[in-house]
Amino acid sequence: MHEMAVAGGIINILSQKLAELGDCKLIGMQLAVGKLSGIEEHSLRFALDTLLVGAGFADVELHFHDQPALFKCSGCSWQGQLQSFNMSCPDCEGSDLELVSGQDVILERIEVE
Ligand SMILES: [Zn+2]
């Protein structure tokens, strides 16, 4: 289950951040889920809940939002979302597009008290 591996990575980052912050209680976190990450929000939520409880965190509120797939054209300066998957630049019709974001799950913010 891919979501479990992703959740494990997030818990690692989370633990590091909490260690840096010192004495505080985790109450929530916000995650951006990339459109092309292949992650199902429902499964990720379940995996995170399981791991959080396992790591000793209870009642952590999880916030998710979609991160659109953003592409950048190396032929011109266009950057944005593609309407379809034809993979060519809407400005110059070049095909040298690079995926800028939307592939990953990112831990954006943690809430502590
Ligand atoms: Zn272009």
Describe this structure in words.
The protein has a single domain (3-112), classed as hypothetical protein PF0899 fold (2-Layer Sandwich). 30% of the residues lie in helices and 31% in strands. It has two helices and six strands; from the N terminus they run αβαβββββ. The strands form two sheets. A three-stranded mixed sheet has the order 2-1-6, covered by helices on one side. The structure holds zinc ion (ZN). Residues 73, 75-76, 78, 89, 91-92, 94 line the site of zinc ion (ZN).
Compact summary:
With 113 residues, the chain is α+β, with helices and mostly antiparallel strands. Helix content is 30%, strand content 31%.
Number of domains: 1
The hetero compounds bound to this protein are: zinc ion
Cα-atom Rg, whole angstroms?
Answer: 17 Å
Distance between the termini: 32 Å
Uncertain spans:
none
Mean pLDDT: 93
Work out the helix count. Answer: 2
Top CATH class: Alpha Beta
Q: What's the overall geometry?
A: elongated
Beta content comes to 25-35%
Tell me the CATH topology: hypothetical protein PF0899 fold
- Which class do the helix and strand fractions yield? alpha+beta
Q: H/E element string?
A: HEHEEEEE
Q: Determine the fraction of residues in helical runs and give it as a percent range.
A: 25-40%
